[in-house]
Amino acid sequence: MISDLERWRLILGEPASGMVPLDAENAGRDAALAWLYGRDEELERRGIRRGGGGASTLTTVDWLDDVHRLFPRRTIERLERDAVERYDIQEVVTDPDVLERVEPNPALLRAVLRTKHLMNPRVLALARRIVAQVVQELLAKLTTEVRRSLTGTRRPTPSNFRLARNFDFQGTIKANLAHYQPDSKRLLVERVRFTSRTERHTEPWQLVLLVDQSGSMAGSVIHSAVTAACLWGVPGLRTHLVAFDTDVVDLTADVTDPVELLMKVQLGGGTDIARAARYGADLIDSPRRAVVAIVSDFYEGGNEFTLVRTVQGLVEQGTHVLCLAALDPDARPDYDRVLAQRLADAGAHVGAMTPGELASFVAERIGR
Questions:
Q1: Which among 79, 254, 358, 360 is most buried, taking Cβ atoms within 10 Å?
Q2: pTM of structure
C-alpha cells in the first residue's frame, strides 16, 4: 500500500527526493516513471519529473517488464498510451520483443495502424494479436449497445399474448386505479395489461459509412469498422463501409472480419472527401431509405464546392446525410468548422456520435 506522501513523491519525481525515502519497489516505480516522463521538457520546466544528467541504461523492453511488474493494469495502459502517443516511442509497436510483452489496448491499436507499413512480416504477425484482442473487446462491448437500438420496439396496442417481457407495468396500473385501497395502500389488480412487440424494419434500408483514413481519424476508423461489423446482418439494413484518402477503397466485403479490414487500412495521406461522397451516392438504390454517414475531420484536400453540392443533392433526393467529426466514444474532434457549417447549411446533420448514437439515429429513421 502506497502512502499519500509516497504517491506525491512518485508524481513529482527527483525534485521531491527529500520528501520521503523510497523502498526498493517504489524506487523501481520511480525509475520507470523517470524513463518515460523525464523526457518531457514541459514537466522539467515546471520542476516535475526532471530528467537525469546521464544516459538511461533501460531499454524499452526492460522498461516494459518493470512497468508490468510494478504497476496495476489501469496504470500500465496509461503508461503505454503515453509512450506511443505522447512521446512517440515507436519501439512499443515495432520491436518484436516489446510486442510479445505489451498489453493490448485501444491506444496501441491506433499506434499499430499508424506504423504497420513499417513492420516486417514477423512484427506484423505479432501486431495482429493486438488488433484481434482489442477488436474482440470492442465487439463484445458495442454489439449489445448497437443491436439494442435497432431491434424490436413495443407498440402501445394491447396484446392477448401474455409474456413476462411484454408486461405493461404503467398500463396495468392505470387500468386498476379504481381498485386502489387507501387504508392498506394496496392496489388490487384485476386486469393485467400486455403489449406486443414488432420489428422496426419493414422495408430494406442502406447505411453507407464513408470513413476518412487520415492519421488523425484512427479512433474513428477503428470504431467505424467495429460498428459496421455489429450492424452487418441486421434485418432490413444493408451496410457499406468505404475508406478514403485521395483514393476510395470499398471494404464492405471485409466487414464481417474487422481484424482483416483494419489490417488493410492505410492511415495517412491526403483527403478527397468529395470523391468519397460521390462514390457513396452511387451506391444508393432507394434515396429515401438511405443514410450516408461521412466520418471525417473535413479538412478537404479535394473540391469543397463539389462536396457541398453532392451533399445537397443527397439531401434533396431524400437521403439522410450525417457529417460526423468523430465516431468514437472518447474523441475530442478537431475539424474544419467552416466547411462543416456549409455542409449543415446544405441540409446535413453535423456533429460527433458514439456507435450507439449512430445506431439510434438509423433506428429512428427505419422505424418511421
A1: 358
A2: 0.67
- 97 vs 241, more confident: 241
Cell numbers standing for residue 167: 408486461
Q: Which fold has domain 205-366?
A: Rossmann fold (3.40.50)
C-alpha distance from residue 116 to each of 95, 101, 133, 255, 278 (Å)? 12, 18, 16, 20, 29
Bigger pLDDT: 327 vs 163: 327
The three-state DSSP-derived secondary structure of 185-247 is: CEECCCCCCEEEEECCCCCCEEEEEEEECCHHHHHHHHHHHHHHHHHCCCCCEEEEEEEECCC
Query: What CA dihedral angle connects 263, 226, 320 and 309, to 10 degrees?
Result: -20
Can you tell me whether residue 93 is helix, strand or coil? helix
Q: What is the mean pLDDT of residues 276-286?
A: 95
Buried b / exposed e along 29-68 (16+ C-beta atoms within 10 A): bbbbbbbbbbebeebbeeebbbbeeeeeebebbebbbbbb
Going from N- to C-terminal start, the domains of the chain cover 154-198, 205-366
If one counts every other C-beta atom within 10 angstroms of the C-beta of residue 315, the result is 18
Q: Find all residues with CB under 8 Å of 303, minimum gap 6, and list them.
A: 274
- 240, 291 Cβ separation under 8 angstroms: no
